[in-house]
Structure prediction request, 226 residues.
Amino acid sequence: MSILKPYRYHRKESIERRANDILMAMNRANAAPRWPFEASLVADFLDLGVVWDDISPDEEGAIAARILPTERLIEINEDILDKPQGFQESTLAHEIGHWVLHINQEEADGVVKQLELDLGDYGTPKESEQPFVCRGAANSKIYSIEWQAQYFAGCLLMPKFILEEKRKGRDLTKWSHLYKIKDELGVSISNLTYRLQQFGWISIPEGSRKIYRGPAEAEGQQKLFG
Ligand SMILES: [Zn+2]
Prediction:
């Protein structure tokens, strides 16, 4: 058994359910999530510590964040502190996604117990004590788990029910309306448009700033002008 679960394919629906389960559990525990969203409250709820730290690149390149499973700790590279708040929330939600989907939590807890028994043994760290390293969504080698963690982040920060609520009385094809929604949710504009396109509520052809209603309209337009 490893602290990192073996790779498996997660359906979108099951990732969404995992995120919703956490939001509902928070609700039941009188820790109901609010928007603009603070991902750190989810970390608190899951009993995960979060620190912002200077994480130096290793031989494979830059490190966006690390998870120290046995310490239940997420370390985020403080490089992103100068990025907009929405980007920071998304990064933390992404790491929580790795914790939920990819870390073998029972094994992490087991190692903690083992470490307590082994106190005084200062040998080389076991594989299971190594941090889980997240380099961000761009690394193709680990693209699948990165995609899963990012999809989880979208589900956590922007559950469907809250988007249904926020779209009322708004025109999703207007950037000014989307910017209002993004501020109310506390997310980045790219996370919001990505999520709205996943639902098929809007579509923005690549390289374009024009927002179409739903996927069909954009395709029709492209055929017309393509
Ligand atoms: Zn990641």
Notes: The radius of gyration is 20 Å. The chain has two domains: 12-156, 161-225. The mean pLDDT is 87. Residues 94, 98, 134, 146, 149 surround zinc ion (CB under 6 Å).
